[in-house]
Design brief:
Layout: H1 2-38, H2 49-53, H3 58-88
Protein backbone atom coordinates (compact mmCIF):
# COMPACT_ATOMS: atom_id res chain seq x y z
CA UNK A 1 0.00 0.00 0.00
CA UNK A 2 2.83 2.37 0.80
CA UNK A 3 4.44 1.73 -2.56
CA UNK A 4 1.27 2.51 -4.47
CA UNK A 5 0.67 5.79 -2.68
CA UNK A 6 4.31 6.74 -3.20
CA UNK A 7 3.98 6.04 -6.93
CA UNK A 8 0.78 8.05 -7.14
CA UNK A 9 2.39 11.03 -5.38
CA UNK A 10 5.39 10.82 -7.68
CA UNK A 11 3.18 10.67 -10.78
CA UNK A 12 1.15 13.66 -9.59
CA UNK A 13 4.32 15.65 -8.98
CA UNK A 14 5.62 14.80 -12.45
CA UNK A 15 2.29 15.73 -14.01
CA UNK A 16 2.23 19.08 -12.16
CA UNK A 17 5.78 19.76 -13.29
CA UNK A 18 4.93 18.97 -16.91
CA UNK A 19 1.84 21.18 -16.82
CA UNK A 20 3.84 24.02 -15.27
CA UNK A 21 6.58 23.69 -17.89
CA UNK A 22 4.02 23.69 -20.70
CA UNK A 23 2.31 26.77 -19.24
CA UNK A 24 5.59 28.63 -18.83
CA UNK A 25 6.69 27.76 -22.37
CA UNK A 26 3.41 29.09 -23.80
CA UNK A 27 3.75 32.30 -21.81
CA UNK A 28 7.40 32.78 -22.80
CA UNK A 29 6.63 32.17 -26.50
CA UNK A 30 3.82 34.70 -26.32
CA UNK A 31 6.05 37.28 -24.66
CA UNK A 32 8.87 36.71 -27.13
CA UNK A 33 6.55 37.14 -30.09
CA UNK A 34 5.20 40.41 -28.65
CA UNK A 35 8.73 41.73 -28.08
CA UNK A 36 9.81 40.68 -31.56
CA UNK A 37 6.79 42.43 -33.06
CA UNK A 38 7.71 45.70 -31.34
CA UNK A 39 11.34 45.77 -32.40
CA UNK A 40 11.33 45.56 -36.15
CA UNK A 41 14.41 45.98 -38.27
CA UNK A 42 13.83 48.57 -40.95
CA UNK A 43 15.91 49.02 -44.03
CA UNK A 44 17.80 52.28 -44.32
CA UNK A 45 15.63 55.05 -45.69
CA UNK A 46 16.83 57.25 -48.49
CA UNK A 47 14.99 60.26 -49.85
CA UNK A 48 15.50 62.08 -53.11
CA UNK A 49 17.62 65.24 -53.07
CA UNK A 50 14.56 67.41 -53.72
CA UNK A 51 12.88 66.14 -50.57
CA UNK A 52 16.02 66.64 -48.50
CA UNK A 53 16.05 70.29 -49.49
CA UNK A 54 12.46 70.70 -48.27
CA UNK A 55 13.23 69.11 -44.90
CA UNK A 56 11.82 65.64 -45.57
CA UNK A 57 14.90 63.75 -44.37
CA UNK A 58 15.27 60.03 -43.54
CA UNK A 59 14.86 60.88 -39.84
CA UNK A 60 11.49 62.48 -40.60
CA UNK A 61 10.44 59.39 -42.58
CA UNK A 62 11.40 57.11 -39.67
CA UNK A 63 9.46 59.29 -37.23
CA UNK A 64 6.41 59.21 -39.52
CA UNK A 65 6.63 55.41 -39.78
CA UNK A 66 6.84 55.18 -36.00
CA UNK A 67 3.76 57.39 -35.59
CA UNK A 68 1.83 55.35 -38.15
CA UNK A 69 2.66 52.10 -36.35
CA UNK A 70 1.54 53.61 -33.03
CA UNK A 71 -1.74 54.77 -34.59
CA UNK A 72 -2.31 51.28 -36.00
CA UNK A 73 -1.70 49.75 -32.57
CA UNK A 74 -4.16 52.16 -30.95
CA UNK A 75 -6.73 51.34 -33.64
CA UNK A 76 -6.31 47.60 -32.95
CA UNK A 77 -6.84 48.15 -29.22
CA UNK A 78 -9.88 50.34 -29.84
CA UNK A 79 -11.55 47.80 -32.11
CA UNK A 80 -10.87 45.05 -29.58
CA UNK A 81 -12.32 47.22 -26.82
CA UNK A 82 -15.38 48.04 -28.91
CA UNK A 83 -15.99 44.37 -29.61
CA UNK A 84 -15.66 43.56 -25.93
CA UNK A 85 -18.00 46.37 -24.89
CA UNK A 86 -20.57 45.26 -27.46
CA UNK A 87 -20.48 41.76 -26.04
CA UNK A 88 -20.65 42.90 -22.43
CA UNK A 89 -23.56 45.32 -22.93
CA UNK A 90 -25.72 42.96 -24.95
CA UNK A 91 -29.15 42.58 -23.45
CA UNK A 92 -29.92 38.99 -22.59
CA UNK A 93 -33.52 38.00 -22.10
CA UNK A 94 -33.87 35.79 -19.03
CA UNK A 95 -37.67 35.69 -18.97
CA UNK A 96 -39.22 32.27 -18.95
CA UNK A 97 -42.55 31.49 -20.55
CA UNK A 98 -45.39 31.14 -18.10
CA UNK A 99 -46.87 27.71 -17.74
CA UNK A 100 -50.60 27.43 -17.35
CA UNK A 101 -52.00 24.41 -15.63
CA UNK A 102 -55.52 23.33 -16.37
Amino acid sequence: MVRTSHLIRRDRALCRRDILLAFLSVISCSCCSRVAARFRCHDPVSTPAGFDGQGYTPDVVRADCFEISKLQEVARYRTALERFSQLSTAQIDFTLPQLYFV
